[in-house]
Amino acid sequence: MPRPRASAFAHRARTAVDPALRIDANGSPVTIAPATWWVCFVPGLRPQWWHRFADARHKHVFALRPLGDGNWLLVEPWWTRLMVNVLAPGQAMQFLRWAAAGDVLAVREAIPGRGSQLRGWSNCSVLVAFLLGRGHLAWTPNGLYRRLAREPGVVRIDAKRLVREHALEAGAQAALRDRGAPLDEALADLGAGAVAAMLSSRGLTLYATAAAGFDSAMDACWAFGLGRVAERIRDALEQAHRDGEVELDDCEAAAARFVAMLRGNLCLEVGFGVREAPGPDEVRAHVASAVGLLLRGARAR
Amino acid sequence: MNLHATIVPHPVPDLRRYAILRTVADTLRDDGGDGGAAGIAAVVTAAGVSRRELVREFGGADRLLVALAAMFAAALLEPLAACTTEAALLARLRDFAARMLGGSPGMQLRRLHRLALVEAAGDPALGHAFYRQGPGMVADELSRFFRAAQYAGIVPAGDSDRLAGHFLELLRSRWHLAGEVHGEREAARIVDAFWRGVQAERGDAPAAR
Hints:
The structure holds 2 protein chains of 2 kinds.
Chain A: H1 6-16, E1 36-42, E2 60-66, E3 72-77, E4 82-87, H2 89-99, E5 103-108, H3 124-131, H4 141-149, E6 155-157, H5 159-179, H6 183-199, H7 201-212, H8 215-224, H9 226-242, H10 251-271, H11 280-297
Antiparallel strand pairs in A: 1-2, 1-5, 2-3, 3-4, 5-6
Helix pairs in contact in A: 2-5, 3-4, 6-9, 6-10, 6-11, 7-8, 9-10, 10-11
Chain B: H1 3-7, H2 11-30, H3 39-46, H4 51-58, H5 61-77, H6 86-101, H7 103-122, H8 124-133, H9 135-151, H10 160-171, H11 184-202
Helix pairs in contact in B: 2-7, 5-7, 5-8, 5-9, 6-11, 7-8, 8-9, 9-10
């Protein structure tokens, strides 16, 4: 639907619609804050005749963004339709794997934007530029990529790293299940791995990058990083709860708190450059303390 | 004797300095959710503070960031007076937690930390100063509070620094989630969960099987 400037048609809007309906300065019945999209410039999945005219890596572009509950919203222009779907985390990971083969930019959409429906030619670049409210005259994914990358505030996302960490974490989970370790040992193992990952230069860089970016990037870091560790810990706690080993009112909250305790002031000190990363003994003692506090706090029946 | 002059020796500059800190803190609260993307300079601009005034009162945006950290730390630490009973200790911890998590202050603190992380990436000295005046100061004072409670026999003996670190991170545990800041009820829940763990260490509470 065309959304002309509110000032030009304000009188018409006020006479044609229910007077109780309030419209904002952009002519919208609701005001929604601009969201940040992960704009993914990717190679093709299957050869297409027009690929020969496109950049080697950036033959297609789509956009997705985390919704904060683990799900993602996807907008992908097809040749024949516009795909708009809410993706479960596993489905989003498939798209992020595709994105990891190209480049990903975190871009805040512009409201009301500078695009125009009169522009026509709805290829993927044009539609994504329109989604973002951009008036860029870029006809190819690579052209759009170059223009967006030059904008201040646009942050480059390392999708490869997110995918790799997801795979590593899934492997760790499988290993843990295979061993069938007691709860405290399982938590200590998971905790030591999480602390090591958080304190690694890669982990600290990832966190700083997310902090430098946008809230949605922070959500994504949680969804595919510590959030997944917290999920495994929650599973372990739920199993222990079912076995009568511990009693917890809310295993999910307890897991999130455990991950938070793991972070401790250590990560903040290292992140702010106040101290060097701790050695393995200190990490072990730190994790053991957090495990003890969690399990002792879990009320026995 | 002019009491006001005694308390505030240079009322005009100090009041202006305080007013700037409040204005920038309010801007952090009202900001649309850019996290640290905008940087402290943009936040200062959005707060309507001119560069000239910023330099005159603080010397620069980096020092303003450190001053904000100190201001928030002082406000957080107010409830942590020495205590001699468990009830008093829990009341102080709940007050402390509510200040850290309650609506606006929680949002401001989260954004302040993220801004500082961003700025510290390009200026390690700033990160150091921010930590020492802000989160480091809070951690040290909280550790001192727990140590005093250990001397009073309320908290079992142990590493008070680690205890303070765990408690602070429990309170910060949901900062990674955009737009979600816990209120006083969540603060009380976290204090209760923490205290159950601490109590059990002494053997006052049933341990997990």
